[in-house]
Please model this.
Amino acid sequence: MARESILVVEDEEDILELVRHNLTKEGYQVTCAASGEEGLRAANVKRPDLVLLDLMLPGIDGLEICKTLKADNETQAIPVVILTAKGEETDIVTGLELGADDYIVKPFSPKVLIARLRAVLRRGSRKSQDDQTTIHIHDVVIHPGRHEVLVKDKPVELTLTEFRVLHFLARRPGWVFTRYQIVNAVKGEDYAVTDRAVDVQIVGLRRKLGSAGKYIETVRGVGYRFKE
Model:
């Protein structure tokens, strides 16, 4: 039986064929694109269940594609997994900030790749009704369905990842979460990211929330919580 559809955007023919072969063997419907422009067209013509995206592409690069997909209301909910040789911490943080759902560094194990993609797809399919409930806390309003945050009735522009971190913390005010728990909740288990990347998200959130940034508290030696 046909399973989810995956768009693979990769310009290295050997890697593209390796990924296509392994995904097809697992029963996924696979569409391939060898350039950024081709990938964007494919994502808009027939919206896939997931985009597997190289960063270093001819024409439009992978980060720009990710940014474009996440900025469009029609495609922002499509999970994006970055598959790249660029494994520096700054590259991972940039991918996170643009809303990537996972970040896999080449060389990679096909079995691990499939497990990670399966985990991302599973997270996307189990959105509960609770996840769509509007949160009112202090002077902050969070609308999950609209990906909208208001502070004192004024909209706050957040990246997709910043929004997910805020929503996760605000759903359970007073609870303390470790960086590992935050990454697991927002991105899933075994996400290749450092503690530093979580700290970057928190710093960005506090700055953008302005006076409401004080509600995100640091618990030294443990992690973070949203103030009750």
